Amino acid sequence: MITVLANIVIYCKGGLYLNDTQEKILSCAMDEFLEKGFLNASLRHIVKKAGVTTGAFYRYYDSKEILFEALVDEHAQHILDLYDQAVDNLEKLSGNNQTRQMADITDDCIMLMLDYVYDHYDAFKLLLQCSKGTQYDQFTHQLVMREVKSTQNYIKTLNDMGHHMNPISDNLIHIIASGMFSSMFEVVIHDMPLSDAKEYVKQLRRFYSAGWEELLGVLF
After folding, report:
1. Which strands, in side-by-side order, build the sheet including 8-13?
2. Could you count the other beta carbons within 10 Å of the beta carbon of residue 144?
3. What 3 state SS string does the chain have?
4. CA distance 74 to 88
5. Which positions ≥6 away from 73 have C-beta within 8 Å?
6. Which of 154, 12, 38 is nearest to 91 (CA)?
7. How many other C-beta atoms can be found within 10 angstroms of the C-beta atom of residue 140?
């Protein structure tokens, strides 16, 4: 959506209205953060490269942290929401249907996540490789903890159905979830083309599904 207000061109991006000055700041900030990471990025250098005064910068962003947030928060939250929706859809099903539809729901969610990541590639390079020193350094861990909780819920459902399995520790669940998400995001860290990334992640999913089938004694 484009409109003109007080002779400044403003357009809608991620639900926020950004003018030309903000766009310059964000573009230069993206370059600086990608090159140096959050901790080593220079706010002074960003402002200078954007061609704005420090005063002008602070009219839009209160700090380097808020500037980084403007680049990544929307995208991080979108991925978390996609995952939460998939878990909600799965947990609304009966126990038997959860087992039957687990693979399809999980695969659909992962592919949606992957497509979104590649549509907003630079933002996820920031999240995965340049966010140390910010709250977003915990982005992958947030996904892991949600995966741990959903796995615990599924194991409880199986137990309530009378399905018998060997005990699985929370530590093992956490290690498996950490390995899955860390491996999945390797496609970004190693700059894989999307077509290669999709095939890699499909194979990764088959690997983890087979492992869970062995541990849980179910077939997905």
Report:
1. 2-5, 8-13, 16-18
2. 21
3. CEEEECCEEEEEECCEEECHHHHHHHHHHHHHHHHHHHHHCCHHHHHHHHCCCHHHHHHHCCCHHHHHHHHHHHHHHHHHHHHHHHHHHHHCCCHHHHHHHHHHHHHHHHHHHHHHHHHCHHHHHHHHHCCCCCHHHHHHHHHHHHHHHHHHHHHHHHHHCCCCCCCCCHHHHHHHHHHHHHHHCHHHHCCCCHHHHHHHHHHHHHHHHHHHHHHHCCCC
4. 21
5. 136
6. 154
7. 18
Q: CA 108, CA 80: separation in Å to the nearest integer?
A: 15
Closest CA to 219 of 158, 169, 134: 158
Q: Which residue has the tokens 């083309």?
A: 193
Residue entry with tokens 């669940």: 173
What is the block-wise mean pLDDT of the chain (220 residues), using blocks of 10 residues? 29 58 96 98 97 95 97 98 97 96 96 98 98 98 98 96 93 98 97 97 96 95
Sign of the Cα pseudo-torsion (135, 188, 105, 173, in order): negative
d(C-alpha 21, C-alpha 113), whole Å:
31
Q: Which residue type does 183 have?
A: S
Number of C-beta neighbours around residue 78 at 10 A: 17
Count Cα atoms within 13 angstroms, Cβ side, for 71: 29
